[in-house]
Amino acid sequence: MTLSVAIEMAGVAVFAVSGALAAGRKSLDLLGVVVIAMVTATGGGTLRDLMLDRTVFWIARPEFIIVTGIAALLTIPYVRFARPPERFLMVADALGLALFSVAGARIALGTGQGALIAVVMGTITGAFGGVLRDVLCNEIPMILRKGHIYATASIAGCSLLVILLGLGVSGGVAAAAGMATVAVMRFGSIAFNLTLPVFNLPGPKDPEA
Amino acid sequence: MTLSVAIEMAGVAVFAVSGALAAGRKSLDLLGVVVIAMVTATGGGTLRDLMLDRTVFWIARPEFIIVTGIAALLTIPYVRFARPPERFLMVADALGLALFSVAGARIALGTGQGALIAVVMGTITGAFGGVLRDVLCNEIPMILRKGHIYATASIAGCSLLVILLGLGVSGGVAAAAGMATVAVMRFGSIAFNLTLPVFNLPGPKDPEA
Amino acid sequence: MTLSVAIEMAGVAVFAVSGALAAGRKSLDLLGVVVIAMVTATGGGTLRDLMLDRTVFWIARPEFIIVTGIAALLTIPYVRFARPPERFLMVADALGLALFSVAGARIALGTGQGALIAVVMGTITGAFGGVLRDVLCNEIPMILRKGHIYATASIAGCSLLVILLGLGVSGGVAAAAGMATVAVMRFGSIAFNLTLPVFNLPGPKDPEA
Q: What are the Glycine transporter domain coordinates in residue numbering (chains A, B, C) (predicted)?
């Protein structure tokens, strides 16, 4: 439990930074940036907790809101002075995805759910905050577009976690392996520009020649 | 109860196909198509269950997720080989609407809610998945636009169901009548291009001459 | 409790009018206008109740749905005959924000939550319906854009409410002071065009000269 909370606290901070950076590209005001950061950081876990009928994690521990707010506010002056490297946003986001996916799957297992629901909940916890961020910023969610290996990495990491736990591996080792899988797949797909195949329905504009 | 599950299972499969076809128009990747299909198929029932404080239906029965995934994956190769008729998407969607609306209203009644909440829940179950699909695809939801008879059909079918049950008609007959009403209204509005009146607020560009 | 219900009933009606007016700018059909009005009026309270694990307020009291529907339907013919003053939408929205923010914070306190969660819930209750309205209308939510003092007013009013209650001030006086704070800040920001600072991340197009 303490491990889960620590993982989730780190994930919240990292996602809040990622959300604040993303919001900064949209000419939002100060509060808008903080709101987007909070939604990015807490959206996935909130939906997971509503679905699993748990107390929403940041209502149970309001420290999460404080951490998110501080992370967002610290991000704002930072980018005033130093321009973050182009890929800093993606790296912060990948770490948040790894932390949240594993935390979400562990929480689902802890409430007695089976392997399939644990993987779904891990993926929702990891990816849904970013979906909300993109919807609020009026963009098609990044995870759905152009073959980004994103939710795929979350699914793979959560699946490995569930399999290792099923084989009797200790919780800490399984969590570390799951997080490493998510992060490596995400970094690898950025570094080597790997994508999933894109699916196109032949539309009316298709010449069919 | 078994009837509700059977209706909902059919609705999930049909909506997953509809969602996959809609996603295919957006150049999403393989996983994006599956995600949109799942959201379209499960979004309405998930919101209904959260609001009624029930266990989310696909957490109670993870088979729903498997059915959705299979339906989405089968849709992808199909449209590679055969171009679906222009209206196939609308027909699949209309059947899903009919099945889900009635299932949602029956579930609300089963939890002890009255007629008004049953109609609202039926409409949410039927229409909200498509709303989420359109929001994720960054479009104004189809059900709100240009006078489509969509949620209207759902409201009419759910209302008939509630009235027939109140008159003592058996559950199966009332469900069939409600579904037929939704489907006939939806097909009729497509076939005859029927619409609701459009409401326009005179805007700043209004010449007022 | 009766005070909360009365406040929330007034807020629902006012937000429904605001939602119907906003929807009128989007060429939606009759039902689309009613749906947007209902979502604007009930979205914030619904999310609050789901998060606090309460019975959703309009399921507990279906009168709320009837009030919303009537308010939306009355708005439609009205704007056919009389063009509402340019700022009528903003005034209705500001009143709804004041009523809902205080009602939401009071409800959170009533379920035993602390001051921070009460402020968050008040802000969500007041502002989330409008966020949903803007997302459905495919716009970046107004509360996030261009320095509108909107959620800020809600946060200030809820904070004052919590502080006054902590100092032993009676519930009615604290509620009135909180609502007045929200309304005055909102009206003041409209009248004097006050904004929060806008946060811009230096982007690729930034000349950096």
A: 7-76, 91-164
